[in-house]
């Protein structure tokens, strides 16, 4: 009788797994878990039904995979990922596609590194219920959709690289395999903002190229480790759909070891082929976590821990399960450092904080800088391509431009950047904006500033030099003395367009009839949103304006009221100070 009931449950689960059931909306608060009895005691009948369906679907998918023919027993012993991985020669690199298994120690180290020793079921549900998929809406078809809170840091970083290929390298994503050369060609897809015209095949190749680039970057451009499910390539289409719909249960390190396999590649072409062949696995509900694990293994688990300032903290932060800055930095620059300033700050006695050591392809801006909680360095603020992951207190989105000239600096900006970089290189205050007198003399010599004797004495009188005071002097100093005196006040004016993408699809608990909301049953659902903004960056202060603003007589000169305002504008101003923005429709959201 019990066997008959199990067969009926399995049959029901298989039927449900072939149907599309949208994930639960993003949660803003963790689920209370005070015990196994109380955890589900107060849930609604609808929530209970969805939970039971997910459990049945997961059991069916796992049972189907485990019932497949096993690989030949002559399988290599799992390699220690904490150490450099020895890779077979390239001719055998793809192997049979079975992959290697993590040892129990490696699985425990990986699981604890990501989730910590105590992780709630709600956080695990968030990270095992998020695939890497493009939006089905024509207006946001280039964007990756987020259904659960937490993995947005992984999706946003990957989204930034996808946009790089779609906008600036359309020829590359039309080729069968990646090439190492970088070249720019006219983009036939987005020349007229027609994002919906991008073919599905081009988007998929951009995604695969992005994943390949990120994993090799994490592996110091020497290797990429691709994680997948066991025997996944042997599944037929229907079985792959089961995994996509149901996901696989992961609650412990042992669960992770059971379902995870990995392969190591030393050429981009072979890694590209592998990722392209298993892209459905990354589109499954395990996709975001699977890609994060691939990045961590590519970097090496011990190396990741060495990157961090505090390796005892989990990479997924409690209690809401957000991706940490270390995860975002790993995917943007290949190093799991926790800070966003350039280089590192040395406190002596072997104590130092680690930041971004090199310039990056796509960058990062954060609302927290506008609130004076941190200082984003030049490496992240001025990336090679005008694409930025944007961080708020609880979410990551993406800002990008179609024209790379938005980052080009005019004469004043170039001079300011030169002096600021020299200043910041000697700023040991963690971005506080002041340096010692000795360091100031080095800045003056390096940047060829020739201050009059009385000005030099005045600025050094306090025993330290504040950036705002130095910049005031530079603006008042003639150009032939190394300054940027501009009596016209017009030098530096620019105007350009940028786009903001927020991939979250969640329930609109506040109602209000947002422009991008649609009705699903009785619960309004917010769709991903792409917003075009026109940015106007006024010229720097002239000496007269600076003096006026500092006296408080005309605050509108230094803090102009923008035509429209939202927290996104504050974030944009950390890159282009005093910028004003305008857009059509509702204010763009960064949460």
UniProtKB/TrEMBL annotation:
InterPro entries: MINDY-3/4_CD, MINY3/4, UIM_dom. Residues 111-469 form the Deubiquitinating enzyme MINDY-3/4 conserved domain. It comes from the Eukaryota. GO terms for biological process: proteolysis. Residues 1-50, 543-564 are annotated as: Disordered. Residues 1-11 have a biased composition (Acidic residues). One of its GO terms (molecular function) is cysteine-type deubiquitinase activity. Belongs to the MINDY deubiquitinase family. FAM188 subfamily. PANTHER family: UBIQUITIN CARBOXYL-TERMINAL HYDROLASE MINDY-4-RELATED. This is Deubiquitinating enzyme MINDY-3/4 conserved domain-containing protein. It comes from Eruca vesicaria subsp. sativa. The lineage of its organism: Eukaryota, Viridiplantae, Streptophyta, Embryophyta, Tracheophyta.
């Amino acid at each position: 009788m019990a066997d008959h009931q199990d067969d009926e449950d399995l049959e029901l689960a298989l039927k449900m797994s072939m149907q599309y059931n949208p994930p639960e909306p993003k949660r803003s608060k963790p689920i209370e878990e005070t015990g196994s009895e109380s955890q589900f005691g107060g849930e609604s009948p609808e929530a209970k039904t969805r939970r039971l369906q997910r459990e049945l679907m997961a059991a069916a998918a796992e049972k189907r995979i485990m019932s497949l023919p096993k690989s030949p027993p002559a399988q290599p012993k799992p390699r220690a990922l904490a150490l450099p991985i020895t890779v077979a020669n390239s001719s055998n690199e793809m192997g049979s596609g079975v992959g290697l298994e993590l040892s129990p120690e490696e699985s425990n180290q990986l699981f604890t590194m990501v989730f910590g020793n105590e992780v709630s079921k709600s956080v695990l549900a968030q990270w095992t219920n998020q695939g890497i998929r493009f939006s089905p809406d024509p207006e946001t078809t280039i964007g990756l959709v987020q259904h659960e809170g937490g993995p947005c840091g992984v999706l946003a970083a990957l989204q930034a690289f996808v946009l790089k290929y779609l906008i600036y390298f359309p020829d590359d994503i039309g080729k069968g395999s990646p090439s190492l050369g970088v070249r720019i060609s006219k983009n036939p897809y987005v020349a007229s903002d027609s994002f919906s015209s991008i073919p599905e095949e081009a988007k998929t190749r951009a995604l695969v190229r992005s994943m390949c680039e990120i994993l090799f970057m994490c592996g110091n451009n020497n290797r990429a480790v691709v994680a997948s499910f066991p025997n996944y390539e042997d599944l037929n289409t229907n079985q792959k759909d089961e995994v996509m719909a149901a996901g696989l249960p992961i609650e412990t390190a042992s669960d992770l070891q059971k379902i995870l396999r990995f392969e190591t590649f030393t050429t981009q072409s072979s890694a590209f082929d592998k990722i392209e062949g298993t892209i459905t696995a990354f589109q499954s509900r395990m996709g975001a976590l699977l890609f994060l694990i691939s990045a961590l293994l590519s970097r090496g688990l011990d190396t990741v821990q060495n990157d961090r300032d505090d390796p005892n903290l989990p990479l997924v932060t409690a209690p809401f399960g957000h991706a940490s800055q270390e995860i975002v930095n790993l995917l943007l620059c290949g190093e799991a450092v926790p800070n966003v300033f350039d280089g590192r700050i040395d406190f002596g006695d072997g104590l130092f904080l680690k930041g971004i050591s090199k310039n990056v392809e796509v960058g990062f801006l954060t609302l927290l800088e506008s609130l004076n909680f941190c200082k984003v360095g030049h490496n992240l603020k001025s990336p090679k391509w005008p694409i930025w992951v944007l961080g708020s207190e609880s979410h990551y989105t993406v800002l990008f431009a179609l024209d790379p000239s938005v980052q080009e600096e005019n004469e004043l900006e170039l001079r300011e950047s030169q002096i600021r970089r020299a200043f910041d290189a000697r700023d040991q205050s963690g971005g506080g904006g002041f340096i010692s007198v000795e360091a100031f003399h080095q800045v003056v010599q390096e940047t060829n500033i020739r201050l009059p004797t009385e000005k030099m004495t005045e600025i050094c009188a306090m025993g330290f030099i504040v950036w705002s005071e130095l910049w005031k002097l530079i603006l008042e100093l003639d150009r032939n003395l190394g300054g940027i005196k501009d009596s016209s006040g017009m030098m530096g004016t620019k105007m350009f367009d940028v786009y903001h993408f927020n991939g979250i699809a969640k329930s609109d608990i506040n109602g209000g009839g947002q422009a991008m909301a649609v009705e699903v049953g009785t619960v309004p659902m917010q769709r991903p949103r792409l917003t075009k903004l026109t940015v106007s960056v006024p010229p720097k202060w002239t000496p007269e304006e600076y003096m006026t603003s500092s006296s408080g007589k005309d605050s509108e000169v230094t803090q102009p009221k923008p035509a429209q305002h939202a927290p996104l504008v504050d974030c944009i101003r950390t890159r282009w100070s005093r910028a004003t923005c305008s857009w059509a429709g509702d204010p763009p959201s960064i949460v």
